[in-house]
Design a protein that fits this description.
This protein is α/β, with parallel strands linked by helices. The chain is built from 14 helices and 10 strands. The strands form 2 sheets. The chain has an 8-stranded mixed beta sheet with strand order 5-4-6-7-3-8-9-10, with helices on both faces. A two-stranded antiparallel ribbon has the order 1-2.
Length: 343
Amino acid sequence: MTTRRPLDPPAFTSVLQVYASRAEVSRLSTGSHRLDQLIGGIESTRFYLFYSGDGEKTSDRLVYRLMVETVKSGGDVVYMLCGNYRRDRTSLDSELLLDLIEESGLEPEDALSHIHIIGVFSEAQLMNAPSLVEQVMNNNDVGLLAVQQISKLFYSESAIGFEDRTEFTGVISRLKELCSVHEAALAASCMAKKRRSLHPEPMGGSYLRHLVNVMVYLREINGEEVSAQLIKHFEKRRTGKRVSLGGKEDDVLGRITKDSMRGRLQDQMRHLRSGYRDALKDNTMQTAFDDVWGDWNNEQGAMIYAQVVSALDLLNLTGVLANRREIEKLRGRLEALEKRDED
């Protein structure tokens, strides 16, 4: 009869050791204290899926926030933009991204140099995406793989039948594997299915729901706050909890429901044109306003780069520069006239 040998104690890991090792794990912030408390921050090698209702951009904007937080912490980002060029457009909100970068105190040019963009708009591009991601990860210290609208090509309402969904599952599995090897986090956004309950499922099929480690449903409330419902988490005790984000207590994440800097500038410009211009009694002042308006339109790109909080300050600065330009023109004409008189 075989004598059983006692099991080797070092082969086992105690609960205390597990909790101690979990406490030492470095985590990336979402930019929101409440959301960090809900999900425990963003851990490397984990797969996070944030999804929101049709027409809401909250999940995409949160992915942008994570990109900025990663760069701020010293890491690089691989950003995959997914769409379907035949039927459905997906675009990078560069204005919002720049806005978030500036609000974080980063230099835009330097920050953008740490974000590597990969476009995925067809099946062929999707199949090639993992190799491109791997190249970037091999040559850079990547802390985050961010994927905007991860399931749009295969699962959106505009998708057509001949796309092979096994390709989708294979690619997603490979991306998660790359993140595990390179110790990077994977954060993705997608749309929710048509709402039939308080907590609709994300588009992407059962495989995607099975593969993710953390799944959060984001829902805008009255355009000012965001409800974050934790649908799935690798720590079971967290699952099912919900927090409300936004307002003064959580202003960083609250901004993801707001317009970009360009949007705020344009709103201010429209307000001034409809209210201030028409109230001017002097026709020459109205004409001068129209000239400044033209300069505002032409220089919106420069204004969104400026690290100035007030949109009105930016408009005023641009107006002052326009006035300075006109003064220089008049000075040049005056000098030309004086020179002609001397001759």
